[in-house]
Design brief:
By secondary structure, the protein is an all-alpha fold. It has one helix and no strands. The protein is rod-shaped and about 115 Å long.
């Protein structure tokens, strides 16, 4: 009878260990992983918003550069015609 009680105690102990490891820790790990993903998404969104805000300035710089190059080409063409 003591052997059966010992085996039963071991099984209950391992069952509790299984419960703690798999039933409780896995949702905790999944929650942590989701938190990290959400944090990563927020960081990526902030970076994207910063880039979008910088786009008009970059567009203005590109327009100025294109205008300068266009005027140089026109001047060179005028000099060739003379």
């Amino acid at each position: 009878m003591e052997t059966i009680e010992l085996i039963y105690g071991v099984l209950v102990g391992y069952g509790f260990l299984f419960l703690v490891i798999f039933v409780i820790s896995i949702p905790c790990m999944l929650t942590l992983m989701m938190y990290l993903k959400i944090e990563k998404w927020i960081k990526a969104r902030k970076e994207l918003m910063e880039r979008v805000r910088a786009m008009p300035e970059m567009f203005d710089e590109l327009q100025k550069t294109i205008y300068m190059l266009d005027t140089r080409i026109r001047r060179q063409e005028e000099l060739r015609r003379r």
